[in-house]
Amino acid sequence: MKPIMRKNTMLTPFGEKLDKNCPLNDYPRPLLQREKWQCLNGIWDYAVYPKGTQFNGYEGEIVVPFSPESILSGVGKLVMPDDVLYYRKKFTFHKEKPVTILHFGAVDYACIVRLNGRMVGEHRGGYMPFSMNVSKIIKEGENVLEVAVTDPSDTGRQAHGKQKIERGGIWYTPQSGIWQTVWLEQVCENYISTIHYDTDINQETVKIHVQFALHHECYIVDVFLADGGSIRVYAEDGDATVDLTRAFHLWSPENPYLYKVRISTSGGEAVESYFAMRKVSVKRIGEFYRICLNGKPYFQKGLLDQGYWSDGLYTAPSDEAMIYDIETMKKLGFNTLRKHIKIEPLRWYYHCDRLGMLVWQDLVSGGTLDAPVRKQYGGTYPAYERLTGHKKKTPRDTDLTSFARENEEERLEYYRDLADTVQLLHNQPSIVMWVAFNEGWGQFDALKAEKAIKALDKTRLVDHASGWYDQGGGDVNSIHDYSKKPIYPLYGKRDYRPIVLSEYGGLTAVPSVEHVFDPLKTSGYRRFGNAESCTEAFCRLQTRLSKDIAKKGLSACIYTQVSDVEEEMNGILTFDRKVIKVDVARVIAVNKLLKL
User: Fold this and answer.
1) Could you read off the pLDDT of 357-390 as tens digits, one per residue?
2) C-beta separation of 311 from 12 below 8 A
3) What residues of the chain score a pLDDT lower than 50?
4) 2-187 belongs to which homologous superfamily?
5) Hey, where are the domains in the chain?
6) Comparing C-alpha atoms, which of 182, 144, 174 is closest to residue 67?
7) Under a CB-based contact definition with an 8 Å cutoff, are residues 548 and 487 in contact?
8) Which of 514, 579, 60, 58 is closest to 328 using CA atoms?
9) In 327-430, where do the E strands start and end?
Protein backbone atom coordinates (compact mmCIF):
# COMPACT_ATOMS: atom_id res chain seq x y z
CA MET A 1 0.00 0.00 0.00
CA LYS A 2 1.39 3.39 -0.93
CA PRO A 3 0.20 7.01 -0.58
CA ILE A 4 -1.52 8.65 -3.57
CA MET A 5 0.13 11.89 -4.61
CA ARG A 6 -2.34 14.61 -5.62
CA LYS A 7 -1.46 18.16 -6.59
CA ASN A 8 -4.91 19.32 -5.48
CA THR A 9 -7.30 17.88 -2.91
CA MET A 10 -10.56 18.40 -4.77
CA LEU A 11 -13.79 18.05 -2.83
CA THR A 12 -17.09 18.32 -4.65
CA PRO A 13 -19.83 20.46 -3.06
CA PHE A 14 -21.47 17.18 -2.11
CA GLY A 15 -18.34 15.73 -0.52
CA GLU A 16 -17.97 18.88 1.55
CA LYS A 17 -21.29 18.03 3.23
CA LEU A 18 -20.54 14.33 3.76
CA ASP A 19 -21.98 12.66 6.85
CA LYS A 20 -19.16 10.25 7.68
CA ASN A 21 -21.28 8.34 10.17
CA CYS A 22 -23.77 7.14 7.55
CA PRO A 23 -23.16 8.36 3.99
CA LEU A 24 -25.32 7.25 1.05
CA ASN A 25 -28.08 6.00 3.33
CA ASP A 26 -30.89 6.00 0.74
CA TYR A 27 -32.52 2.63 0.04
CA PRO A 28 -30.10 0.96 -2.40
CA ARG A 29 -32.56 -1.02 -4.59
CA PRO A 30 -35.55 1.13 -5.66
CA LEU A 31 -37.09 -1.57 -7.88
CA LEU A 32 -37.61 -3.94 -4.95
CA GLN A 33 -37.98 -1.90 -1.80
CA ARG A 34 -38.92 -2.96 1.73
CA GLU A 35 -39.39 -1.16 5.03
CA LYS A 36 -37.09 -3.19 7.30
CA TRP A 37 -33.50 -2.42 6.36
CA GLN A 38 -30.36 -1.15 8.05
CA CYS A 39 -27.55 0.83 6.42
CA LEU A 40 -24.07 -0.28 7.51
CA ASN A 41 -22.19 2.52 5.75
CA GLY A 42 -20.04 4.77 7.88
CA ILE A 43 -16.86 4.44 9.90
CA TRP A 44 -15.24 0.98 9.81
CA ASP A 45 -11.83 -0.28 10.93
CA TYR A 46 -9.35 -1.19 8.21
CA ALA A 47 -5.87 -2.59 7.67
CA VAL A 48 -3.73 -3.56 4.69
CA TYR A 49 -1.08 -6.30 4.78
CA PRO A 50 0.91 -8.00 2.02
CA LYS A 51 -0.45 -11.39 0.98
CA GLY A 52 1.02 -14.17 3.10
CA THR A 53 1.66 -11.82 6.02
CA GLN A 54 0.02 -12.60 9.34
CA PHE A 55 -2.84 -10.28 10.26
CA ASN A 56 -1.70 -8.11 13.18
CA GLY A 57 -4.65 -5.90 14.01
CA TYR A 58 -6.43 -2.95 12.45
CA GLU A 59 -4.46 0.20 11.73
CA GLY A 60 -7.05 2.92 11.28
CA GLU A 61 -10.55 4.00 10.27
CA ILE A 62 -12.12 4.16 6.81
CA VAL A 63 -15.41 5.68 5.68
CA VAL A 64 -17.40 3.02 3.82
CA PRO A 65 -18.46 2.80 0.99
CA PHE A 66 -15.54 4.88 -0.30
CA SER A 67 -12.49 2.99 -1.50
CA PRO A 68 -9.21 3.57 0.37
CA GLU A 69 -7.75 5.33 -2.67
CA SER A 70 -10.39 8.07 -2.48
CA ILE A 71 -10.30 11.29 -0.49
CA LEU A 72 -13.67 10.67 1.16
CA SER A 73 -12.52 7.36 2.63
CA GLY A 74 -10.14 9.25 4.87
CA VAL A 75 -7.29 6.92 3.85
CA GLY A 76 -5.89 8.11 0.51
CA LYS A 77 -3.63 5.12 -0.13
CA LEU A 78 -3.33 2.74 -3.06
CA VAL A 79 -4.03 -0.96 -2.46
CA MET A 80 -1.57 -2.98 -4.54
CA PRO A 81 -2.25 -6.33 -6.26
CA ASP A 82 -0.15 -8.18 -3.66
CA ASP A 83 -2.05 -6.62 -0.74
CA VAL A 84 -5.01 -7.84 1.31
CA LEU A 85 -7.44 -5.15 2.46
CA TYR A 86 -9.21 -5.97 5.74
CA TYR A 87 -12.40 -4.35 7.05
CA ARG A 88 -14.27 -4.60 10.34
CA LYS A 89 -17.62 -3.11 11.36
CA LYS A 90 -19.28 -3.45 14.77
CA PHE A 91 -23.01 -2.83 14.71
CA THR A 92 -26.10 -3.35 16.83
CA PHE A 93 -28.95 -5.47 15.48
CA HIS A 94 -32.55 -5.93 16.62
CA LYS A 95 -34.32 -8.92 15.11
CA GLU A 96 -37.88 -8.33 13.91
CA LYS A 97 -38.33 -10.89 11.10
CA PRO A 98 -37.19 -14.50 10.65
CA VAL A 99 -34.75 -13.97 7.75
CA THR A 100 -31.88 -11.48 7.61
CA ILE A 101 -29.97 -10.84 4.39
CA LEU A 102 -26.60 -9.10 4.21
CA HIS A 103 -26.17 -7.09 0.99
CA PHE A 104 -23.11 -5.60 -0.70
CA GLY A 105 -23.64 -3.17 -3.58
CA ALA A 106 -20.19 -3.87 -5.02
CA VAL A 107 -16.74 -4.91 -3.80
CA ASP A 108 -13.69 -4.75 -6.08
CA TYR A 109 -12.57 -7.45 -6.73
CA ALA A 110 -12.56 -10.69 -4.68
CA CYS A 111 -13.71 -10.88 -1.08
CA ILE A 112 -14.37 -13.23 1.83
CA VAL A 113 -17.06 -12.21 4.34
CA ARG A 114 -17.24 -13.25 8.01
CA LEU A 115 -19.88 -12.43 10.58
CA ASN A 116 -19.22 -12.99 14.26
CA GLY A 117 -16.13 -15.00 13.38
CA ARG A 118 -17.88 -17.37 10.96
CA MET A 119 -17.48 -17.31 7.20
CA VAL A 120 -20.77 -16.47 5.49
CA GLY A 121 -19.67 -16.28 1.87
CA GLU A 122 -17.27 -15.07 -0.78
CA HIS A 123 -17.60 -13.25 -4.08
CA ARG A 124 -15.60 -12.41 -7.21
CA GLY A 125 -16.31 -9.51 -9.53
CA GLY A 126 -15.94 -5.82 -8.87
CA TYR A 127 -19.23 -4.45 -10.20
CA MET A 128 -22.12 -6.71 -9.22
CA PRO A 129 -24.25 -6.63 -6.06
CA PHE A 130 -24.35 -9.81 -4.00
CA SER A 131 -26.07 -10.99 -0.84
CA MET A 132 -25.85 -13.65 1.88
CA ASN A 133 -28.45 -15.14 4.20
CA VAL A 134 -27.03 -14.56 7.69
CA SER A 135 -30.14 -15.49 9.70
CA LYS A 136 -28.40 -18.29 11.63
CA ILE A 137 -25.32 -16.25 12.50
CA ILE A 138 -26.51 -12.73 13.21
CA LYS A 139 -27.54 -12.14 16.81
CA GLU A 140 -29.49 -9.71 18.93
CA GLY A 141 -27.30 -6.87 20.13
CA GLU A 142 -23.70 -6.35 19.01
CA ASN A 143 -22.32 -8.09 15.91
CA VAL A 144 -18.96 -7.97 14.14
CA LEU A 145 -18.75 -7.97 10.33
CA GLU A 146 -15.36 -8.60 8.68
CA VAL A 147 -14.40 -8.49 5.01
CA ALA A 148 -11.07 -9.39 3.38
CA VAL A 149 -10.49 -8.09 -0.18
CA THR A 150 -7.90 -8.58 -2.90
CA ASP A 151 -7.81 -6.65 -6.17
CA PRO A 152 -5.42 -7.27 -9.08
CA SER A 153 -6.51 -3.96 -10.66
CA ASP A 154 -5.08 -3.60 -14.18
CA THR A 155 -2.47 -6.33 -13.61
CA GLY A 156 -5.27 -8.86 -14.20
CA ARG A 157 -7.55 -9.35 -17.16
CA GLN A 158 -10.81 -9.29 -15.20
CA ALA A 159 -13.28 -6.48 -15.82
CA HIS A 160 -11.63 -3.33 -14.44
CA GLY A 161 -12.40 -0.56 -16.91
CA LYS A 162 -10.15 2.49 -16.90
CA GLN A 163 -8.51 1.79 -13.55
CA LYS A 164 -4.73 1.71 -13.77
CA ILE A 165 -2.09 1.58 -11.04
CA GLU A 166 0.20 3.83 -13.11
CA ARG A 167 -2.54 6.31 -13.94
CA GLY A 168 -2.26 9.09 -16.52
CA GLY A 169 -4.04 10.46 -19.58
CA ILE A 170 -7.17 8.38 -20.20
CA TRP A 171 -6.26 5.97 -17.35
CA TYR A 172 -7.44 6.83 -13.87
CA THR A 173 -6.57 6.17 -10.23
CA PRO A 174 -7.71 2.62 -9.42
CA GLN A 175 -10.03 1.88 -6.53
CA SER A 176 -10.34 -1.22 -4.40
CA GLY A 177 -12.58 -2.84 -1.84
CA ILE A 178 -16.09 -1.81 -0.83
CA TRP A 179 -17.38 0.97 -3.08
CA GLN A 180 -21.16 0.63 -2.85
CA THR A 181 -23.56 0.46 0.09
CA VAL A 182 -23.43 -2.36 2.64
CA TRP A 183 -26.83 -3.07 4.19
CA LEU A 184 -29.02 -5.51 6.08
CA GLU A 185 -32.59 -6.42 5.23
CA GLN A 186 -35.15 -8.33 7.30
CA VAL A 187 -37.74 -10.37 5.42
CA CYS A 188 -40.26 -13.16 5.90
CA GLU A 189 -39.20 -16.76 5.22
CA ASN A 190 -40.68 -16.98 1.72
CA TYR A 191 -39.60 -13.53 0.59
CA ILE A 192 -39.72 -12.13 -2.95
CA SER A 193 -36.25 -12.53 -4.45
CA THR A 194 -36.76 -10.93 -7.89
CA ILE A 195 -39.37 -9.10 -9.95
CA HIS A 196 -39.24 -9.18 -13.73
CA TYR A 197 -41.28 -6.86 -15.96
CA ASP A 198 -42.09 -7.49 -19.63
CA THR A 199 -43.86 -4.53 -21.16
CA ASP A 200 -45.83 -4.46 -24.42
CA ILE A 201 -46.80 -0.99 -25.63
CA ASN A 202 -48.79 -2.39 -28.57
CA GLN A 203 -51.05 -4.43 -26.31
CA GLU A 204 -50.85 -1.81 -23.53
CA THR A 205 -50.04 -4.52 -21.00
CA VAL A 206 -47.26 -5.47 -18.64
CA LYS A 207 -46.49 -9.03 -17.54
CA ILE A 208 -45.01 -9.29 -14.05
CA HIS A 209 -43.04 -12.35 -12.99
CA VAL A 210 -42.35 -12.70 -9.27
CA GLN A 211 -39.78 -15.18 -7.98
CA PHE A 212 -39.85 -16.33 -4.36
CA ALA A 213 -37.08 -17.63 -2.11
CA LEU A 214 -38.76 -20.97 -1.37
CA HIS A 215 -41.98 -21.63 -3.29
CA HIS A 216 -44.61 -19.80 -5.28
CA GLU A 217 -47.32 -17.96 -3.36
CA CYS A 218 -50.47 -16.12 -4.30
CA TYR A 219 -49.82 -12.41 -4.54
CA ILE A 220 -51.61 -9.15 -5.25
CA VAL A 221 -50.32 -6.47 -7.62
CA ASP A 222 -51.51 -2.91 -7.09
CA VAL A 223 -50.53 -0.47 -9.86
CA PHE A 224 -51.05 3.14 -8.79
CA LEU A 225 -52.13 5.70 -11.36
CA ALA A 226 -51.49 9.42 -11.69
CA ASP A 227 -55.15 10.30 -11.11
CA GLY A 228 -55.07 8.70 -7.67
CA GLY A 229 -56.73 5.47 -8.76
CA SER A 230 -55.22 2.03 -9.00
CA ILE A 231 -55.45 -1.28 -10.82
CA ARG A 232 -55.44 -4.49 -8.77
CA VAL A 233 -54.57 -7.92 -10.17
CA TYR A 234 -54.59 -11.23 -8.28
CA ALA A 235 -52.00 -13.86 -9.22
CA GLU A 236 -52.85 -17.32 -7.96
CA ASP A 237 -50.29 -19.16 -10.03
CA GLY A 238 -47.53 -17.88 -12.31
CA ASP A 239 -47.32 -14.42 -13.82
CA ALA A 240 -49.63 -11.46 -13.39
CA THR A 241 -50.69 -9.51 -16.48
CA VAL A 242 -51.91 -5.95 -15.99
CA ASP A 243 -54.06 -4.26 -18.64
CA LEU A 244 -53.21 -0.55 -18.68
CA THR A 245 -55.63 0.51 -21.41
CA ARG A 246 -57.68 2.81 -19.20
CA ALA A 247 -54.57 4.68 -18.01
CA PHE A 248 -51.86 4.17 -20.61
CA HIS A 249 -48.75 6.39 -20.53
CA LEU A 250 -45.59 6.03 -22.59
CA TRP A 251 -42.21 6.75 -21.01
CA SER A 252 -39.81 9.14 -22.74
CA PRO A 253 -37.22 11.75 -21.70
CA GLU A 254 -39.90 14.38 -22.25
CA ASN A 255 -42.45 12.47 -20.16
CA PRO A 256 -40.72 9.99 -17.83
CA TYR A 257 -43.89 8.41 -16.51
CA LEU A 258 -43.36 5.63 -13.98
CA TYR A 259 -46.12 3.31 -12.81
CA LYS A 260 -45.70 2.76 -9.07
CA VAL A 261 -46.33 -0.79 -7.90
CA ARG A 262 -46.99 -2.57 -4.64
CA ILE A 263 -46.79 -6.37 -4.48
CA SER A 264 -48.10 -8.18 -1.41
CA THR A 265 -48.26 -11.90 -0.72
CA SER A 266 -50.39 -14.28 1.29
CA GLY A 267 -47.37 -14.91 3.52
CA GLY A 268 -47.06 -11.31 4.68
CA GLU A 269 -44.48 -10.00 2.22
CA ALA A 270 -44.90 -6.47 0.81
CA VAL A 271 -42.56 -4.63 -1.57
CA GLU A 272 -42.66 -1.35 -3.48
CA SER A 273 -41.55 -1.20 -7.11
CA TYR A 274 -42.17 0.55 -10.44
CA PHE A 275 -42.10 0.02 -14.19
CA ALA A 276 -42.48 2.08 -17.36
CA MET A 277 -43.95 1.52 -20.81
CA ARG A 278 -41.52 2.21 -23.65
CA LYS A 279 -40.08 0.53 -26.72
CA VAL A 280 -36.84 1.05 -28.62
CA SER A 281 -36.45 -0.24 -32.18
CA VAL A 282 -34.87 0.34 -35.59
CA LYS A 283 -36.87 1.30 -38.68
CA ARG A 284 -36.11 2.48 -42.17
CA ILE A 285 -37.36 6.05 -42.53
CA GLY A 286 -36.85 7.33 -46.06
CA GLU A 287 -33.36 6.44 -47.28
CA PHE A 288 -31.85 5.80 -43.83
CA TYR A 289 -32.37 3.45 -40.91
CA ARG A 290 -33.23 5.28 -37.71
CA ILE A 291 -33.43 4.56 -34.00
CA CYS A 292 -37.02 4.84 -32.83
CA LEU A 293 -38.48 5.41 -29.39
CA ASN A 294 -42.05 4.19 -28.94
CA GLY A 295 -42.33 3.61 -32.68
CA LYS A 296 -41.22 7.10 -33.77
CA PRO A 297 -37.79 8.31 -34.97
CA TYR A 298 -35.97 9.85 -32.02
CA PHE A 299 -32.56 11.50 -32.19
CA GLN A 300 -30.43 10.58 -29.20
CA LYS A 301 -28.03 13.40 -28.27
CA GLY A 302 -25.87 12.40 -25.38
CA LEU A 303 -22.61 12.43 -23.50
CA LEU A 304 -20.01 9.92 -22.41
CA ASP A 305 -20.37 9.48 -18.66
CA GLN A 306 -17.36 7.92 -16.92
CA GLY A 307 -18.90 8.09 -13.44
CA TYR A 308 -15.73 9.29 -11.68
CA TRP A 309 -15.69 11.79 -8.82
CA SER A 310 -12.76 13.89 -7.64
CA ASP A 311 -13.38 12.97 -4.00
CA GLY A 312 -15.12 9.57 -4.18
CA LEU A 313 -13.56 8.03 -7.35
CA TYR A 314 -16.10 5.33 -8.39
CA THR A 315 -18.48 6.33 -5.59
CA ALA A 316 -20.64 9.45 -5.83
CA PRO A 317 -20.55 11.40 -2.55
CA SER A 318 -24.35 11.38 -2.24
CA ASP A 319 -27.65 10.78 -3.97
CA GLU A 320 -27.77 14.52 -4.56
CA ALA A 321 -24.47 14.31 -6.47
CA MET A 322 -25.79 11.67 -8.88
CA ILE A 323 -28.94 13.72 -9.44
CA TYR A 324 -26.88 16.85 -10.13
CA ASP A 325 -25.01 15.27 -13.06
CA ILE A 326 -28.17 13.90 -14.65
CA GLU A 327 -30.25 17.04 -14.19
CA THR A 328 -27.50 19.37 -15.37
CA MET A 329 -26.95 17.43 -18.59
CA LYS A 330 -30.68 17.34 -19.22
CA LYS A 331 -30.99 21.10 -18.66
CA LEU A 332 -28.23 21.60 -21.23
CA GLY A 333 -30.40 19.85 -23.81
CA PHE A 334 -28.99 16.32 -23.80
CA ASN A 335 -31.30 13.31 -23.56
CA THR A 336 -28.81 10.40 -23.36
CA LEU A 337 -25.87 9.28 -21.25
CA ARG A 338 -23.51 6.53 -22.34
CA LYS A 339 -22.41 4.93 -19.06
CA HIS A 340 -18.84 4.25 -20.03
CA ILE A 341 -17.14 1.02 -18.93
CA LYS A 342 -18.71 1.12 -15.48
CA ILE A 343 -21.85 -0.10 -13.72
CA GLU A 344 -23.41 2.36 -11.32
CA PRO A 345 -25.31 1.78 -8.09
CA LEU A 346 -28.97 1.02 -8.79
CA ARG A 347 -30.05 4.41 -7.50
CA TRP A 348 -28.27 6.09 -10.41
CA TYR A 349 -30.45 4.20 -12.91
CA TYR A 350 -33.52 4.98 -10.81
CA HIS A 351 -32.79 8.68 -11.14
CA CYS A 352 -32.37 8.31 -14.92
CA ASP A 353 -35.71 6.46 -14.98
CA ARG A 354 -37.61 9.11 -13.03
CA LEU A 355 -35.88 12.19 -14.49
CA GLY A 356 -36.03 10.99 -18.08
CA MET A 357 -32.52 10.26 -19.31
CA LEU A 358 -31.82 7.54 -21.87
CA VAL A 359 -28.84 5.29 -21.08
CA TRP A 360 -26.44 3.32 -23.25
CA GLN A 361 -24.86 0.80 -20.88
CA ASP A 362 -21.33 -0.43 -21.58
CA LEU A 363 -20.19 -3.81 -20.37
CA VAL A 364 -17.08 -3.26 -18.29
CA SER A 365 -13.88 -3.78 -20.28
CA GLY A 366 -11.45 -6.50 -19.30
CA GLY A 367 -8.81 -8.44 -21.17
CA THR A 368 -6.14 -6.20 -22.66
CA LEU A 369 -5.86 -3.23 -24.99
CA ASP A 370 -2.36 -4.30 -26.05
CA ALA A 371 -3.51 -7.10 -28.32
CA PRO A 372 -1.30 -8.11 -31.27
CA VAL A 373 -4.00 -6.94 -33.68
CA ARG A 374 -3.74 -3.40 -32.34
CA LYS A 375 0.03 -3.38 -32.77
CA GLN A 376 -0.40 -4.73 -36.29
CA TYR A 377 -2.83 -2.01 -37.28
CA GLY A 378 -0.99 0.74 -35.44
CA GLY A 379 -2.30 4.23 -34.89
CA THR A 380 -4.74 5.47 -32.32
CA TYR A 381 -7.96 5.26 -34.31
CA PRO A 382 -8.29 2.10 -36.43
CA ALA A 383 -11.95 2.99 -37.03
CA TYR A 384 -10.86 6.24 -38.70
CA GLU A 385 -8.36 4.35 -40.84
CA ARG A 386 -11.05 1.89 -41.89
CA LEU A 387 -13.49 4.63 -42.85
CA THR A 388 -10.94 6.54 -44.89
CA GLY A 389 -9.73 3.43 -46.69
CA HIS A 390 -6.21 3.38 -45.26
CA LYS A 391 -6.58 -0.29 -44.38
CA LYS A 392 -7.88 -3.00 -46.64
CA LYS A 393 -10.17 -4.68 -44.17
CA THR A 394 -11.22 -4.85 -40.54
CA PRO A 395 -9.67 -7.80 -38.67
CA ARG A 396 -12.01 -10.59 -37.62
CA ASP A 397 -12.20 -10.88 -33.87
CA THR A 398 -12.69 -14.64 -34.04
CA ASP A 399 -8.89 -14.86 -34.08
CA LEU A 400 -8.44 -15.23 -30.32
CA THR A 401 -4.65 -15.12 -30.51
CA SER A 402 -4.56 -11.81 -32.35
CA PHE A 403 -6.98 -10.32 -29.83
CA ALA A 404 -5.10 -11.77 -26.81
CA ARG A 405 -8.15 -13.76 -25.68
CA GLU A 406 -6.70 -17.29 -25.68
CA ASN A 407 -7.50 -17.85 -22.01
CA GLU A 408 -10.83 -19.71 -21.78
CA GLU A 409 -11.49 -18.77 -18.14
CA GLU A 410 -11.20 -15.07 -19.01
CA ARG A 411 -13.70 -15.51 -21.83
CA LEU A 412 -16.09 -17.37 -19.54
CA GLU A 413 -15.80 -14.60 -16.96
CA TYR A 414 -16.75 -12.05 -19.62
CA TYR A 415 -19.95 -14.01 -20.34
CA ARG A 416 -20.73 -14.34 -16.64
CA ASP A 417 -20.36 -10.57 -16.28
CA LEU A 418 -22.48 -10.06 -19.40
CA ALA A 419 -25.34 -12.19 -18.07
CA ASP A 420 -25.16 -10.63 -14.60
CA THR A 421 -25.22 -7.10 -16.02
CA VAL A 422 -28.15 -7.65 -18.35
CA GLN A 423 -30.19 -9.45 -15.70
CA LEU A 424 -29.40 -6.89 -13.01
CA LEU A 425 -30.52 -3.94 -15.13
CA HIS A 426 -33.31 -5.55 -17.12
CA ASN A 427 -36.11 -3.56 -15.46
CA GLN A 428 -34.57 -0.10 -15.89
CA PRO A 429 -36.62 1.65 -18.61
CA SER A 430 -33.94 4.29 -19.17
CA ILE A 431 -31.51 1.73 -20.64
CA VAL A 432 -32.04 1.44 -24.41
CA MET A 433 -28.67 0.09 -25.62
CA TRP A 434 -26.08 -2.45 -24.49
CA VAL A 435 -22.47 -1.89 -25.59
CA ALA A 436 -20.67 -5.25 -25.76
CA PHE A 437 -17.11 -4.06 -26.49
CA ASN A 438 -15.44 -0.66 -26.61
CA GLU A 439 -12.57 0.15 -29.00
CA GLY A 440 -11.36 -3.43 -29.13
CA TRP A 441 -10.52 -3.66 -25.40
CA GLY A 442 -10.70 -7.36 -24.68
CA GLN A 443 -12.90 -7.86 -27.72
CA PHE A 444 -13.53 -11.38 -29.00
CA ASP A 445 -16.35 -12.99 -30.99
CA ALA A 446 -18.43 -9.81 -30.85
CA LEU A 447 -21.15 -11.36 -33.01
CA LYS A 448 -21.54 -14.17 -30.47
CA ALA A 449 -21.65 -11.64 -27.65
CA GLU A 450 -24.45 -9.85 -29.45
CA LYS A 451 -26.41 -13.10 -29.71
CA ALA A 452 -25.84 -13.78 -26.00
CA ILE A 453 -27.23 -10.37 -25.10
CA LYS A 454 -30.21 -10.76 -27.40
CA ALA A 455 -30.99 -14.15 -25.90
CA LEU A 456 -31.26 -12.46 -22.50
CA ASP A 457 -32.92 -9.25 -23.63
CA LYS A 458 -34.73 -8.75 -26.94
CA THR A 459 -36.14 -5.37 -25.89
CA ARG A 460 -32.99 -3.26 -26.36
CA LEU A 461 -30.47 -2.45 -29.07
CA VAL A 462 -26.89 -3.74 -29.08
CA ASP A 463 -23.72 -1.93 -30.12
CA HIS A 464 -21.52 -4.98 -30.59
CA ALA A 465 -18.19 -3.18 -31.24
CA SER A 466 -18.23 0.47 -30.35
CA GLY A 467 -15.77 2.48 -32.40
CA TRP A 468 -13.26 -0.12 -33.54
CA TYR A 469 -13.16 -3.51 -35.28
CA ASP A 470 -16.74 -3.52 -36.53
CA GLN A 471 -17.83 -7.08 -37.37
CA GLY A 472 -20.92 -6.01 -39.32
CA GLY A 473 -23.38 -6.98 -36.59
CA GLY A 474 -25.32 -5.29 -33.85
CA ASP A 475 -28.15 -2.81 -34.27
CA VAL A 476 -26.03 0.28 -34.95
CA ASN A 477 -23.03 1.23 -37.05
CA SER A 478 -20.95 2.70 -34.24
CA ILE A 479 -18.22 5.26 -35.00
CA HIS A 480 -15.66 7.04 -32.80
CA ASP A 481 -14.24 10.15 -34.47
CA TYR A 482 -12.68 13.09 -32.63
CA SER A 483 -11.84 15.11 -35.74
CA LYS A 484 -13.43 18.47 -36.64
CA LYS A 485 -15.47 16.86 -39.39
CA PRO A 486 -16.56 13.31 -38.52
CA ILE A 487 -16.38 10.82 -41.38
CA TYR A 488 -19.21 8.35 -41.96
CA PRO A 489 -19.13 4.96 -43.72
CA LEU A 490 -19.50 5.13 -47.47
CA TYR A 491 -21.79 2.12 -47.27
CA GLY A 492 -24.07 3.78 -44.74
CA LYS A 493 -27.08 3.95 -47.03
CA ARG A 494 -26.82 0.22 -47.77
CA ASP A 495 -26.27 -0.84 -44.17
CA TYR A 496 -29.36 -1.94 -42.23
CA ARG A 497 -27.92 -0.32 -39.11
CA PRO A 498 -28.46 3.30 -38.10
CA ILE A 499 -25.27 5.37 -38.01
CA VAL A 500 -24.30 6.55 -34.54
CA LEU A 501 -21.35 8.71 -33.59
CA SER A 502 -20.80 6.96 -30.29
CA GLU A 503 -17.79 9.10 -29.32
CA TYR A 504 -16.77 12.51 -30.65
CA GLY A 505 -15.75 15.99 -29.57
CA GLY A 506 -13.50 15.84 -26.55
CA LEU A 507 -12.97 19.60 -26.70
CA THR A 508 -10.54 20.65 -24.00
CA ALA A 509 -10.59 23.77 -21.87
CA VAL A 510 -8.53 24.06 -18.69
CA PRO A 511 -10.26 26.00 -15.89
CA SER A 512 -8.59 27.89 -13.06
CA VAL A 513 -6.00 25.89 -11.18
CA GLU A 514 -8.09 25.08 -8.09
CA HIS A 515 -10.42 22.97 -10.26
CA VAL A 516 -7.64 20.95 -11.92
CA PHE A 517 -6.45 17.55 -10.69
CA ASP A 518 -2.83 18.17 -11.74
CA PRO A 519 -2.00 21.59 -13.24
CA LEU A 520 1.21 20.18 -14.75
CA LYS A 521 -0.51 17.32 -16.59
CA THR A 522 -3.62 17.98 -18.65
CA SER A 523 -4.81 16.05 -21.69
CA GLY A 524 -7.59 16.15 -24.27
CA TYR A 525 -8.23 16.14 -28.00
CA ARG A 526 -8.56 19.77 -29.19
CA ARG A 527 -7.37 22.37 -26.71
CA PHE A 528 -8.82 25.87 -26.27
CA GLY A 529 -7.59 28.79 -24.25
CA ASN A 530 -10.85 29.66 -22.53
CA ALA A 531 -14.47 28.65 -22.09
CA GLU A 532 -15.67 31.09 -24.75
CA SER A 533 -13.55 29.63 -27.56
CA CYS A 534 -14.35 26.08 -26.43
CA THR A 535 -18.08 26.85 -26.47
CA GLU A 536 -17.73 28.35 -29.94
CA ALA A 537 -16.06 25.18 -31.24
CA PHE A 538 -18.73 23.03 -29.58
CA CYS A 539 -21.50 25.01 -31.25
CA ARG A 540 -19.84 24.70 -34.66
CA LEU A 541 -19.51 20.96 -34.20
CA GLN A 542 -23.13 20.50 -33.08
CA THR A 543 -24.36 22.63 -35.98
CA ARG A 544 -22.38 20.49 -38.42
CA LEU A 545 -23.86 17.31 -36.91
CA SER A 546 -27.38 18.71 -37.15
CA LYS A 547 -26.91 18.88 -40.93
CA ASP A 548 -25.51 15.33 -41.03
CA ILE A 549 -28.79 13.99 -39.63
CA ALA A 550 -30.65 14.54 -42.89
CA LYS A 551 -27.70 14.39 -45.32
CA LYS A 552 -25.76 11.42 -43.97
CA GLY A 553 -28.22 9.50 -41.83
CA LEU A 554 -26.77 10.30 -38.41
CA SER A 555 -29.16 8.85 -35.79
CA ALA A 556 -27.38 9.53 -32.49
CA CYS A 557 -24.27 11.19 -31.12
CA ILE A 558 -22.37 10.87 -27.82
CA TYR A 559 -20.11 13.81 -26.93
CA THR A 560 -17.04 13.31 -24.73
CA GLN A 561 -17.83 14.00 -21.89
CA VAL A 562 -19.86 14.89 -18.76
CA SER A 563 -16.95 15.97 -16.56
CA ASP A 564 -13.19 16.22 -16.47
CA VAL A 565 -11.57 13.08 -15.06
CA GLU A 566 -8.18 13.57 -13.43
CA GLU A 567 -5.81 14.66 -16.24
CA GLU A 568 -8.55 14.50 -18.91
CA MET A 569 -9.86 18.04 -19.30
CA ASN A 570 -12.60 17.61 -21.91
CA GLY A 571 -15.63 17.68 -19.62
CA ILE A 572 -18.66 19.93 -19.66
CA LEU A 573 -18.15 20.10 -15.88
CA THR A 574 -14.95 20.36 -13.89
CA PHE A 575 -13.84 17.23 -12.05
CA ASP A 576 -14.99 18.72 -8.73
CA ARG A 577 -18.42 19.61 -10.23
CA LYS A 578 -18.04 23.24 -9.16
CA VAL A 579 -17.86 24.87 -12.61
CA ILE A 580 -19.84 24.44 -15.83
CA LYS A 581 -17.13 25.03 -18.42
CA VAL A 582 -19.35 26.10 -21.33
CA ASP A 583 -21.80 28.90 -22.00
CA VAL A 584 -25.05 27.31 -20.83
CA ALA A 585 -27.41 29.38 -22.98
CA ARG A 586 -25.46 28.75 -26.19
CA VAL A 587 -25.22 25.00 -25.55
CA ILE A 588 -28.96 24.78 -24.89
CA ALA A 589 -29.68 26.68 -28.09
CA VAL A 590 -27.42 24.65 -30.37
CA ASN A 591 -28.59 21.31 -28.94
CA LYS A 592 -32.12 22.17 -30.08
CA LEU A 593 -30.87 21.83 -33.68
CA LEU A 594 -30.16 18.11 -33.17
CA LYS A 595 -33.48 16.49 -33.99
CA LEU A 596 -35.22 14.31 -36.53
Assistant:
1) 999 999 999 988 777 776 665 444 444 454 444 4
2) yes
3) 378-384, 386-392, 492
4) Galactose-binding domain-like (2.60.120.260)
5) 2-187, 192-275, 300-591
6) 174
7) no
8) 579
9) 336-339, 358-362
